[in-house]
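User: Predict structure, ligand S-adenosylmethionine.
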Amino acid sequence: MNAKPLSARHAAVDLLDQVLGQGRLMSELMHGAAWAAMVPGERAAAQRLAGDVLRALERLDRILKPYLKKDPPLRVRNVLRLAAYELCTGGAAHGVVNEAVTIVGRSGRTAGMKGLVNAVLRKVAASGPGQWAILRVPRLPDWLRGPLVEAWGREAVAAMEAAHFAGAPLDLSAKGDPAVVASAVGGDLLPTGSVRLHDPGQVTALPGYDAGDWWVQDAAAALPVRLLGDVSGQRVLDMCAAPGGKTLQLAAAGARVTALDLSEPRLERVAENLARTGLTAEIVAGDALTHASEYDAILLDAPCSATGTIRRHPDLPHARTGDGIAELIDLQAAMLDHALGLLSPGGRLVFCTCSLLPDEGEAQVDAALARHPGLRVLPPAADWIEPGWRSSEGGLRLRPDFWSARGGMDGFYMALLQSVG
Ligand SMILES: C[S@@+](CC[C@H](N)C(=O)[O-])C[C@H]1O[C@@H](n2cnc3c(N)ncnc32)[C@H](O)[C@@H]1O
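Assistant: Predicted complex:
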């Protein structure tokens, strides 16, 4: 007999265990038989619940602390965190507490703590909602908070933390006229041309999904391609292309795109996205550091810490520790150097990263200017650029606390480069 599919809460606790216990990212985890057996609505609910708990982790631990004399095993703590989140945000106590006790009871290693879970949650049901309303916005873990405070100051980081806690709306990029997409899906047309939905429901059920009229892409992530200007008919290399949001933009703008990426599985997503939208690009599996050809323009969306995407990936600050960023910085510099050698005379290159760390953005461009005497930053010219976005070396710095009244944007850095002489 087949086992009963996991409930959303049970699957959410499994996700929390692996993110917080093993440093895994949620995107790596939502595969396999147990996930496939779940009803789609339950899968989405599990992902949402785990994400909400990770956003609120510090606040939940503060609420639970007075009721825990000893530190419980991680799984029990995660069951308590999830239930506390639901109790503090309007969940019905009976159902929430019962399922928490059931989940703990399923494993011989935790079954002995059913009574504790029940008792703690009864107390949280009474006092938690009042505390929830007054506790501070959860802070980022120290490995990230420290460098961000150094780069942007305490006030800016507090505003970023508020943006991370608030989560992100859904942004779409249109294949054709964004005003038509905005009206079809009932979204807002942003000044930069993206379409924003605050309460989208199921993405694949939105009008125009099957027809490939749009794709999901954060408003900030849609800007690097726009810095390249008119690419119609030009040979453009999307040097780190997968899953392909920027490839789609380039193809929709009429470029002859080569979509290069090291990861074949990730390139399958590029192929699927091209097929759904009816756009074309040459897909190449290969290493950006050895790729050889010549291009009129190159988009280098380099691998990075992804610290700009935390609004959408609240698991990242908890699953990561900051290890490996120095290697990424070296890789970004090597990719940039190699990319400059692939440009035809007068060719343009956009370097960008979805990072909040200046070492992966402003400092990377400063260092490239020092290494390449003929290299220039071309200050981007577009009516949608706000003065506060410009950085001193000539690039654009976007942060999650920008556009707060509109619902924020991902953190991103981008600069338009050209070699002269
Ligand atoms: C930030 S993601 C790219 C996102 C993509 N531009 C988009 O908009 O959908 C970075 C990509 O770099 C790829 N990558 C990492 N090392 C690489 C290498 N040496 N050569 C080519 N691609 C690489 C990764 O597989 C990953 O897909």
